[in-house]
C-alpha cells in the first residue's frame, strides 16, 4: 500500500490507494511460485534411496573364493607349476605368476590381440581364457619365438620392414603372424579365401590383412606389418 499525496497544510487525511505491482515484484513472485512448483520434483529426483537395510534375496549365495591349486604349464619349453586361483586368466598367469612380461595386456577383453600367444600351436587371446583350462598344455609366448639367441624369420622381417612404432602390440602381432603362417602352410582357409574347398595358392595381402585382423595396432603400422608378413612368408617363415 502507498499513501496518496496531500497538499501541505491541508487537513485532508491521506487516503490509501492500492499499490500497483511493480515489474520487479512480479518477477520475484513468479520465481517463488516456480520454485515451489518445481521443488517437489527435484526432491523426488535427488532423494537418496531408502536407507533402511534390506536383506539379500533368499536365493543369493555368497561363495568363498576358490583356493589356489597347482596348474602345470609348459611355457617356451620350460615347465612351470603355478599356484593359481581358478579365476586367473592365462594372460595374468604368464605375466604375474610366471614373470613373462612380453605378452601385453591391452584391453583385457578380447578386442585388441596384444595378448596373443600360441597354445598347442594355435593362437589365442590369453586374456579370454583361464589358466586352469590349459593345465598340462604347451604355451609359446613372444619370449619363445627366438631360438638360442637367433630371432625367428618373422621377428627379423618385422625389424627389416620397420613393422612397429611404439611396439606395444608387437608381441601379439609376432605370435599371430607366426601362427598365421603355420595355418596358411597347413592349408587353413580364411573368410577371403576364394574357394575354401581347395588349398589357398598364395598368401595375398588381403589374406594377410584378414588373418591379422584380430591384432590392432594403435600406431597404425599396418602397411609395414603386412609387408613383413609377406616377406616372412616368402622365406617360408613361421616354423617357430
Ligand atoms: S588384451 Fe587380450 S585381446 Fe586385448
Ligand atoms: S606399434 Fe604401437 S600399437 Fe602397434
List the helices and strands and how they pair.
Blueprint: E1 2-3, E2 16-17, H1 23-46, E3 69-75, E4 78-84, H2 90-97, E5 116-119, E6 122-125, E7 138-140, H3 153-160, H4 170-185, H5 205-211, H6 222-234
Parallel strand pairs: 3-7
Antiparallel strand pairs: 1-2, 3-4, 5-6, 5-7
Helix pairs in contact: 3-6
The chain binds FE2/S2 (inorganic) cluster (2 copies).
What does this structure look like?
- The model is unreliable at 33-48 and 236-240 (pLDDT under 50).
- This protein is α+β, with helices and mostly antiparallel strands and 240 residues long.
- Helix content is 32%, strand content 12%.
- It has 2 domains: 66-144, Ubiquitin-like (UB roll); 147-240, DNA polymerase, domain 1, CATH 1.10.150.120.
- It is extended and about 80 Å long.
- The protein binds FE2/S2 (inorganic) cluster (2 copies).
- One FE2/S2 (inorganic) cluster binds at residues 164-170, 217-219, 221.
The CATH topology of the largest domain is given as: DNA polymerase, domain 1
Bound small molecules, by name, code or SMILES, are: FE2/S2 (inorganic) cluster
Reported CATH architecture of the largest domain: Orthogonal Bundle
Instruction: Name the average pLDDT.
Output: 84
How many runs of DSSP E, i.e. beta strands? 7
Structural class: alpha+beta
* Approximate shape: extended
Number of helices: 6
Provide a compact summary of the structure:
This protein is of the alpha+beta class. Helices cover about 30% and strands about 10% of the residues.
Amino acid at each position: 500500500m502507498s499513501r496518496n499525496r496531500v497538499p501541505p497544510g491541508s487537513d485532508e487525511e491521506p487516503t490509501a490507494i492500492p499499490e500497483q505491482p511493480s515489474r520487479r515484484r512480479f518477477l520475484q513472485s513468479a520465481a517463488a511460485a516456480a520454485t515451489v512448483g518445481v521443488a517437489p520434483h527435484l526432491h523426488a529426483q535427488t532423494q537418496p534411496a531408502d536407507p533402511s537395510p534390506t536383506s539379500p534375496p533368499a536365493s543369493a549365495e555368497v561363495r568363498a573364493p576358490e583356493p589356489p591349486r597347482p596348474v602345470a604349464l609348459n611355457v617356451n619349453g620350460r615347465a612351470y607349476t603355478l599356484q593359481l586361483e581358478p579365476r586367473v586368466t592365462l594372460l595374468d598367469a604368464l605375466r604375474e605368476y610366471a614373470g613373462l612380461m612380453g605378452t601385453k595386456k591391452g584391453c583385457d577383453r578380447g578386442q585388441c590381440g596384444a595378448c596373443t600367444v600360441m597354445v598347442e600351436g594355435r593362437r589365442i587371446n590369453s586374456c579370454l581364457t583361464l589358466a586352469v583350462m590349459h593345465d598340462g598344455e604347451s604355451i609359446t609366448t613372444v619370449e619363445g619365438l627366438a631360438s638360442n639367441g637367433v630371432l625367428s624369420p618373422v621377428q627379423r622381417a618385422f625389424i627389416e620392414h620397420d613393422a612397429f612404432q611404439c611396439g606395444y602390440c608387437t608381441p601379439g602381432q609376432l605370435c599371430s603372424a607366426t601362427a598365421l603362417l603355420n595355418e596358411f602352410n597347413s592349408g587353413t582357409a580364411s573368410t577371403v579365401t576364394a574357394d575354401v574347398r581347395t588349398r589357398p595358392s598364395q598368401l595375398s595381402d588381403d589374406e594377410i590383412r584378414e588373418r591379422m585382423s584380430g591384432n590392432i595396432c594403435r600406431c597404425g603400422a599396418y602397411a609395414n606389418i603386412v609387408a613383413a608378413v609377406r616377406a616372412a612368408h616368402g622365406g617360408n617363415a613361421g616354423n617357430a
